[in-house]
């Protein structure tokens, strides 16, 4: 899945899996498509309660025309369905500048 947010608000990159399923996150790449300026990137997990966020990476500066590996397969990151209280259910991303970062996430759904 890829996303280039057109604003600086939180945007869902990967939503919660169906009940009884899990998303195994393989990687998250953040690419700065601005040719001149660095842009800050934030990637967060939202817990199943729907209001608590935990940062994976917070306001990390991505240089112009560069790609940051925010998560790779060695990190063992899983999203659980929202029935599992206290666990991560959704991945959210925030751009420091609108329309300047593209987020790419590879994941597998396990049921």
Brief summary of the model shown:
By secondary structure, the protein is mostly beta strands. The radius of gyration is 14 Å and the shape is elongated. The two termini are 19 Å apart.
Could you characterize what this model shows?
The structure is a single chain. The protein is mainly β. The chain is built from no helices and 9 strands. The strands form 2 sheets. Strands 1, 3, 6, 7 and 9 form a 5-stranded antiparallel β-sheet that branches. β4 and β5 form a beta hairpin. The radius of gyration is 14 Å and the shape is elongated. The mean pLDDT is 96.
Main sheet attributes: strand count, strand direction, barrel closure: 5 strands, antiparallel
Q: Estimate the helix proportion, in percent.
A: under 10%
What percentage of the residues does DSSP assign to strands (E)?
A: over 45%
SSE topology string: EEEEEEEEE
